[in-house]
Amino acid sequence: MNDERKTTNDEPRAGGQIGFTLLELLVALSILALVTAAIAASFAAGVRVWSAAMEVSGAEEATRAELAVLRRDLMNARRFGPLTFEGGPRAMAFPIVQTFPDALVPGEQLGLARYWHDPREQALFRQTRPIRGGGDWSDVAAERWIAGVEHIAFEYLPFPDDGRAADGAAAWQDEWTQTTNRPLGVRIRLRLRTPPDERTETVILPDREWAPEKKIVIGNQ
């Protein structure tokens, strides 16, 4: 006969109890609850960090794309008869050549672009309209172009023959009032709320009438 004893977890403990005590179960459940809470908290923190990073990344990409359109509009600026380039510290309007979706005539045509900053809305707005068909800016819906703009400053660079600083360099101006010309360049200084950032964009406008062999010295870089 085989006299070996069989050992199982079902052997009664002291006092005749089988299995875990109530105290042991409570301790195990408490530990499990703490571990679960720690994992949930870590997961939630990770989700918040990921969401914040995606929001900042999305805002950065949107700002970059919107500034690219502003740069394109400035590069398409034209001089055309009575239509002049008008510029101030927080607003500017100028003639452009582009395609207007709602225009009566398809294809590229002469129009106007307008950008201005609303400090209460903390946003840069954009409007465009074709010249043909008449109307004014009150007939055109304004697009909230760049949101979260706490401050903006437009500066304008004249051609060297139009204005010079004391050292002979072309000097940036905070207003453009010349009715017979447009600026050589536009500088945009932005302070953004989301993501917190300060940046400067400088756009040199092409001009076929300007002799490229002339040396241009830009002051106050």
Mean pLDDT: 78
**Main beta sheet strand tally, sense and closure:** 5 strands, antiparallel
Rg calculated over all Cα atoms: 34 Å
* Beginning-to-end CA distance, first to last residue: 102 Å
* Proportion of residues in helical segments: 10-25%
**How big a fraction of the residues is strand?**
25-35%
Extended strand count? 8
SSE-based structural type: alpha+beta
**SSE succession:** HEEEEEEEE
Q: State the low-pLDDT regions, or none.
A: 208-221
Distinct helical segment count = 1
**Largest sheet strand order:** 1-2-3-4-5
Please state the overall shape, judged from the principal axes of the Cα atoms.
elongated
Please explain how this structure is put together:
- The chain is an alpha+beta fold and 221 residues long.
- The chain has a domain at 58-204.
- The chain has one helix and eight strands.
- A five-stranded antiparallel beta sheet has the order 1-2-3-4-5, covered by helices on one side.
- β7 and β8 form a beta hairpin.
- The chain is elongated.
Provide the fold topology.
Blueprint: H1 22-75, E1 86-87, E2 91-99, E3 108-118, E4 123-130, E5 143-147, E6 149-157, E7 185-192, E8 197-204
Antiparallel strand pairs: 1-2, 2-3, 3-4, 4-5, 6-7, 7-8
